[in-house]
UniProtKB/TrEMBL annotation:
Residues in the signal sequence: none
Gene this protein is translated from: LOC115881778
GO biological process: protein insertion into ER membrane
Major site of localization recorded for this protein: cytoplasm
PANTHER family in UniProt: GOLGI TO ER TRAFFIC PROTEIN 4 HOMOLOG
Organism in which the protein naturally occurs: Sitophilus oryzae
Keyword entries, A-Z: Cytoplasm, Transport
Protein name: Golgi to ER traffic protein 4 homolog
Pfam families for the chain: GET4
Keyword match Lipid metabolism: no
Length: 323
């Protein structure tokens, strides 16, 4: 029975090769699906995964976007069915397929990416960092800075993230947002418990951004000093330092309403404080933090009042999941 099945697959493969040579892509696509079905039945996963990857790339290079994407989705389905866990091997390959699908096929491309990230997550929340890193670089090459930043947030490439942010700010941002771009990113990374990447991103950004004078820390921009001190407080786990920082830099923190939400979550993650709505009066730091959080809603003629304008950095949150 197995021999008969193998002969059947061989005949299909011969037809597949002939269809490809003749440029009959529709017929070739059907042959790929036929072989896929038979290989699945035989649990010949390694051969099948290689075949689907090569077929997807071949179709995409031949401008057969729909067929190429379909084989890419079949590949992810086989990765799931075979319980493949080698993200180091397959993340670059899935990224190549993603890149070749191209920007003219957003619906198909988004569907492929969603499935690729879901496979790479393997029980985690956001997908494998290596896949996000590859996808971020592709979006960056396409100058899609918002999506590139979103995927860098979920990678562990702080250096690449910082370099992207510098180009993003210089290309699309306002001059007064120099510190806002890095502050929001670092706070979001900390909310994702990614302290090491947050430190690497901040250091690379402040050392390489042409509009930040290389004299810090301390920096000329107060918000940069707050972020630097915050990273030190998290490293030392000193809740007193965190409380004083929030009080002393309240004017800088007011520049973006999102910062309070981020800091509340950071306080929970790194300092063991309760969520803001659950905090009770009293306690050694309760009143101070409560006062700080409540005081942020007061009006202020703080420096950089122009931040009341719609800022580029604030819009970045729309594509970043932090839960």
């Amino acid at each position: 029975m197995a021999t008969s099945s193998s002969r059947g697959v061989s005949r299909v493969l011969e037809k597949l090769d002939k269809s490809l040579k003749n440029g009959d892509y529709y017929e070739a696509h059907q042959m790929y699906r036929t072989v896929c079905f038979r290989y699945l039945g035989q649990e010949r996963y390694k051969e099948l995964k290689d075949m689907l990857y090569q077929g997807s790339v071949l179709f995409l290079d031949s401008d057969q976007k729909t067929s190429g994407t379909d084989l890419g989705l079949l590949l992810i389905d086989v990765l799931n069915k075979s319980k493949e866990q080698d993200c180091i091997l397959w993340s670059p390959k899935l990224s190549i397929i993603f890149s070749k699908i191209g920007t003219d096929n957003d619906t198909e491309r988004d569907a492929f990416l969603a499935q690729a990230v879901k496979w790479s997550a393997q029980g985690t929340s956001h997908g494998h960092p290596l896949l996000h890193q590859h996808i971020a670089k592709i979006y960056w090459d396409e100058q899609n800075y918002v999506q590139a930043r979103h995927h860098y947030i979920h990678s562990q490439d702080g250096k690449g993230c910082a370099e992207l942010l510098i180009e993003f700010h210089l290309t699309k941002g306002y001059k007064y947002e120099t510190d806002l771009f890095i502050a929001q990113t670092v706070l979001q990374l900390l909310c994702l418990r990614n302290r090491i990447t947050a430190n690497q991103t901040f250091t690379t950004y402040t050392e390489n951004h042409p509009r930040i004078k290389k004299t810090g820390p301390p920096f000329l921009l107060p918000l940069l000093n707050f972020i630097w001190f915050l990273l030190q407080a998290i490293e030392s786990k000193k809740i007193q330092t965190f409380a004083v920082l929030c009080e002393q830099y309240r004017n800088s923190i007011k520049r973006d309403p999102c910062y309070v939400k981020y800091l509340d979550k950071i306080a929970q993650i790194f300092f063991g404080l309760k969520p803001q709505e659950e905090k009770k009066p009293g306690g050694i730091f309760g009143n101070l933090i409560e006062s700080f959080l409540g005081g942020l809603e007061d009006d202020s003629d703080d420096e950089n009042s122009s931040a009341a304008q719609a800022s580029t950095s604030r819009k970045l949150i729309e594509n970043t999941e932090l839960d």
